[in-house]
Write a sequence for this structure.
């Protein structure tokens, strides 16, 4: 028999505030008190739900993947940890501090080196490619053999993309895409599997080089952030599981708390290297991981970002032939603007452009979302994914060639800024402007659009370019290749910004304030803001990349307008991809108006517990049969039967008094190290906290534990190893309270206790993340997501 | 240059401009005379450049006047007046207006903006009025082309811009190609040519492409190319259609995690049962 929602909420709220001795308790409650107590041994009958065997198509936005775990940000202060602290003393603290600064320095330097190598490889390979193409085109124009440059272009596009896509699909799928959503989730506190391995880094670097050289509509900035994160995670641990080498250093950093801090620094260094924006990098990490932040971390991250920018600048300036000039502060270089002055009335125009950027961004995101859902549902084998990428490369060859062939727009040669001007059908001494836009690396196209003299491109060629590139960018993001989204968005935005300024020039001929470069920059900012919807960090990144703080006000106004306009229609693109992957991301704040949802609705019940001295057999059985990762440890005192029977049956049953919390990984390490051989109550001398640290981060699974039959009755004392003071919350706490505690402290498990402070339930990330706020078309609402364990995406 | 040479040069020039002047190694009548002659040569140069503005023949036509300006200025810097003070101190850097320096800078600027130094031979660091080897070579080729064009363009109406002139295109193609290639090859060898030559090449190219329409043979439809590119554009549609029709959809099983609500509902349902 189904209970109505109304009745259910009535019961739940009454359970929250019921006082058994309350004189004005209602008749129903008194009647309930006479009900027999449901014993723990009897399996409580589950409601026959019509949700049993429910299925949902893959590619839904409202399903969470239950395989994602939180990071263990909370430090487990068991006796081993306290022993280490006591033994090492203050010198150890100083040593750790010095080590931290050194590691951040190394993170900055290495991230910059990776950025330089990516940039130089792409530069050199592209130079060769476009020079060959230019020669071939110039020769074949007169000899009527245009198929030859077409096939050269095709070879230069398809072969790199094939290599890159094969690497990503077959060796490390998590290296595909931009990497920013994965880093965002990691900084949010979710354990993203395989995201910070060396294999991922190598595949990512090669992948991004091949994608950009292969002419796909993607950029190299997003992958830089991911690379920075991997470098940070790798260096700070002092060991590599991929390469099977343990250097034996930095043992004290081998825990989630420290690793996450380093990864924040690595991501910031990546942003700094990619955009030449150290402050933007710090703010990016701050924006994504703000809840668990501290000031000394900010200082160290800023140091890493500055080191990264400075190193990149030094090396790139030397590469370009002006060592010491330090003019290449980032991989993305907007070039030097002579003047970025604006009048006050232009702010209104900038707001309008922000609105246009928001709408175009929303359109982009919706198209890409639909395409991604299609890909999840239908392009699901490796062969299909690689074929899709190769076909995208083929179309990226055919479409530019067609545009260059059909649009015959010529400009005299002396005014051209391109390296490889192509004559096509123009007269001698002229070059084809459409070819100049397509046949170069996308960054140079952005720079050209920002700095070209007015009327360098006609309405037709610019308009056609915008539409074609927009569609190609929508198609390319989400392919099984490594590549970011920043450069294509900037390019689309710069193109329509310039188009807009040419329209303005048409309406107000002769007006001196219409500077195409300025409008191209605003258009680029608006488009980028409309697509990615990042707030503080994007503003600062663009201000720093432009190099002009006085232009900060227009940029901020544009970005704010673009974000709000876009949010009215759709989500940001990274949010779509995160939701489609079923990642339990926690928002910055708890859902509004959710104070009437209580902890006893949020929690999982009943909860499996262990007693302080537990048999090996019980542990192994529970670990093998269940997928839980955290187990409250209760004492074995008998429950107060009278108190229990006085509780109304409409409140959760508690298992016992809470003593601590122990994790699955800790139990497995204990079993592997045969901790049951030693009598309880004595911590063996050779056991130290390094026993756990050596297995970090990839703990063995329960199947790898081999315990003999005769040992199953032996007992382990869990008290030295468990977390003796886990965070608890009473079952009447509201959802916002639970959410804030969970998010601010970066918890993985939160134990729920009843009025007698006995353990009743457990809240994990999935339990909280299933309450999600949706914001569409100006309205807000709360939805509850479903959970699936067999996620295939 | 030594002072003696300057003096002799000055002597000759002074004699030339003022036949009644008293001959003297130093400048007669003070530095004012120098100033006047400097004004004259500057005016000559300016007049010459303006006369040769379109088509640009500034460098080749005005090189003599330029050299005169240079020498005059050097004289001002080097020679002394009657009372023994150098003319430099009287004329240069004495006031805020700086007419002499300004005019000199104007002349030098004009000359350098047109890159005129690239067309002349250099002798011990200074310019001579003789055109250098490459300039002579390119002018030869240009003259050859002009001769060919005038031979072949006789019968046609030059004001008819749209039809072009196939006779010129056919007969003069080799001359044109020789000129073009010579320019392209040597442009990078010698730091470029002076503006005269560049302008000449630009005008020739413009006439070749737009007036005589000799490049229209480039625009021939290439069917194979078009077919291949169109095929590439259709392939993705075919791929997606195939993938859509031939893939079995996966379904995600939804798990129901254990919640307390399920237990209450069951207990309350039993409660209701017992009560009733």
């Amino acid at each position: 028999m189904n209970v109505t929602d109304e009745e259910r909420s009535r019961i739940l709220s009454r359970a929250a505030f019921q006082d058994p001795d309350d004189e004005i308790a209602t008749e129903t409650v008194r009647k309930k008190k006479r009900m027999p107590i449901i014993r723990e041994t009897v399996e409580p009958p589950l409601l026959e739900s019509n949700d049993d065997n429910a299925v949902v198509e893959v590619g839904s936005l409202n399903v969470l993947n239950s395989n994602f775990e939180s990071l263990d940000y909370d430090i487990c202060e068991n006796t081993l940890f306290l022993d280490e602290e006591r033994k090492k003393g203050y010198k150890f603290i100083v040593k750790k501090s010095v080590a931290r600064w050194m590691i951040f320095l190394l993170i900055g330097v290495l991230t910059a080196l990776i950025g330089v190598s990516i940039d130089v490889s792409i530069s050199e390979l592209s130079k060769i490619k476009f020079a060959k193409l230019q020669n071939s085109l110039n020769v074949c124009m007169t000899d009527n053999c245009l198929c030859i440059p077409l096939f050269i272009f095709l070879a230069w596009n398809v072969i790199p993309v094939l290599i890159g896509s094969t690497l990503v699909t077959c060796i490390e799928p998590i290296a595909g895409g931009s990497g920013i959503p994965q880093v965002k989730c990691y900084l949010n506190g979710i354990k993203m599997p395989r995201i910070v391995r060396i294999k991922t880094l190598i595949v990512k670097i090669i992948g991004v080089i091949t994608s950009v050289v292969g002419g796909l509509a993607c950029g190299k900035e997003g992958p830089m952030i991911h690379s920075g994160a991997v470098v940070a995670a790798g260096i700070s641990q002092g060991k590599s599981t991929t390469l099977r080498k343990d250097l034996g250093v930095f043992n004290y950093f081998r825990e989630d708390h420290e690793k996450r801090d380093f990864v924040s620094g690595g991501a910031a260094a990546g942003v700094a290297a990619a955009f030449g924006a150290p402050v933007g990098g710090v703010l990016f990490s701050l924006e994504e991981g703000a809840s668990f932040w501290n000031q000394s971390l900010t200082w160290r991250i800023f140091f890493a970002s500055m080191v990264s920018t400075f190193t990149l600048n030094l090396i790139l300036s030397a590469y370009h032939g002006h060592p010491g000039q330090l003019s290449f502060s980032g991989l993305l270089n907007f070039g030097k603007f002579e003047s970025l002055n604006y009048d006050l009335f232009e702010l209104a125009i900038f707001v309008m452009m922000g609105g246009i950027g928001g709408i175009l961004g929303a359109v982009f995101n919706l198209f890409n979302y639909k395409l991604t859902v299609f890909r999840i549902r239908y392009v699901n084998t490796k062969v299909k994914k690689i074929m899709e990428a190769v076909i995208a490369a083929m179309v990226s060859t055919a479409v530019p060639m067609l545009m260059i062939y059909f649009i015959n727009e010529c400009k005299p040669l002396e005014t051209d800024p391109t390296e490889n001007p192509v004559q096509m059908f123009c007269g001698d001494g002229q070059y084809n402007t459409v070819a100049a836009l397509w046949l170069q690396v996308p960054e140079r196209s952005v720079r050209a659009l920002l700095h070209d003299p007015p009327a360098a491109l006609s309405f037709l060629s610019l308009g056609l370019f915008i539409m074609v590139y927009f569609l190609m960018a929508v198609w390319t993001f989400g392919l099984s290749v490594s590549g970011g989204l920043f450069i294509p968005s900037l390019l689309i935005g710069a193109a329509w910004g310039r188009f807009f300024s040419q329209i303005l020039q048409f309406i107000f001929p002769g007006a001196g304030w219409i500077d195409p470069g300025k409008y191209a920059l605003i258009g680029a900012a608006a488009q980028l803001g409309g697509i990615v919807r990042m707030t503080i960090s994007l503003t600062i990144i663009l201000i720093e990349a432009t190099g002009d703080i006085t232009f900060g006000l227009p940029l901020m106004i544009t970005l704010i307008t673009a974000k709000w306009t876009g949010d009215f229609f759709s989500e940001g693109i990274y949010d779509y991809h995160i939701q489609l992957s079923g990642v339990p991301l926690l928002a910055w704040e708890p859902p509004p108006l959710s104070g009437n949802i209580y902890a006893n609705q949020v929690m999982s019940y009943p909860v499996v517990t262990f007693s302080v001295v537990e048999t090996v057999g019980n542990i192994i059985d529970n670990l093998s049969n269940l997928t839980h990762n955290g187990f409250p440890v209760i004492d074995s005192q008998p429950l107060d039967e009278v108190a229990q029977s006085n509780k109304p049956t409409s409140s959760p049953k508690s298992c016992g008094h809470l003593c601590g919390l122990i994790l699955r990984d800790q139990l497995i390490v204990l079993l592997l190290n045969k901790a049951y051989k030693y009598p309880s109550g004595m911590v063996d001398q050779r056991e130290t906290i390094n026993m756990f640290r050596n297995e970090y981060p990839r703990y063995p699974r329960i199947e790898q534990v081999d315990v003999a039959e005769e040992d199953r009755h032996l007992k382990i004392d869990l008290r030295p190893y468990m977390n003796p003071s886990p965070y608890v919350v009473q079952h009447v706490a509201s959802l916002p309270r639970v959410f804030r505690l969970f998010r601010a402290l970066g918890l993985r498990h939160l134990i729920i206790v009843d009025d007698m402070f006995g353990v009743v339930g457990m809240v994990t990330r999935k339990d909280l993340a299933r309450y999600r706020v949706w914001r569409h078309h100006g309205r807000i609402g709360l939805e509850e997501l479903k959970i699936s364990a067999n996620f295939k995406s | 240059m030594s002072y003696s040479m300057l003096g002799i040069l000055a002597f000759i020039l002074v004699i030339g401009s003022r036949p009644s002047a008293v001959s003297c190694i130093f400048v007669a009548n003070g530095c004012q005379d120098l100033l006047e002659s400097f004004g004259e040569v500057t005016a000559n140069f300016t007049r010459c450049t303006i006369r040769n503005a379109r088509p640009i023949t500034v460098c080749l036509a005005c090189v003599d006047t330029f050299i005169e300006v240079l020498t005059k200025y050097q004289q001002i810097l080097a020679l002394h007046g009657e009372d023994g003070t150098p003319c430099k101190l009287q004329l240069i850097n004495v006031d805020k207006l700086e007419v002499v320096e300004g005019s000199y800078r104007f002349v030098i600027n004009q000359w350098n903006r047109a890159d005129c130094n690239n067309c002349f031979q250099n002798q011990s660091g200074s310019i001579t009025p003789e055109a250098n080897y490459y300039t002579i070579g390119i002018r030869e080729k240009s003259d050859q082309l002009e001769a060919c064009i005038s031979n072949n363009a006789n019968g046609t109406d030059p004001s008819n811009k749209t039809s072009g002139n196939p006779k010129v295109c056919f007969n003069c193609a080799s001359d044109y190609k020789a000129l073009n290639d010579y320019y392209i090859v040597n442009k990078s060898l010698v730091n470029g040519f002076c503006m005269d030559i560049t302008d000449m090449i630009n005008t020739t190219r413009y006439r070749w492409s737009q007036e005589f329409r000799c490049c229209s043979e480039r625009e021939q439809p290439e069917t194979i190319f078009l077919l291949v590119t169109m095929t590439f554009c259709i392939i993705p549609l075919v791929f997606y259609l195939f993938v859509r029709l031939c893939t079995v959809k996966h379904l995600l099983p939804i798990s129901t995690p254990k919640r307390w609500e399920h237990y209450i509902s069951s207990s309350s349902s039993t409660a209701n049962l017992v009560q009733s």
Q: What stands out?
A: Chain A touches chain B through 81 residues (CB under 8 Å). Confidence is low (pLDDT under 50) at residues 16-51 of chain A. The CA atoms of residues 405 and 658 of chain A lie 76 Å apart. The longest helix of chain A spans residues 79-143.
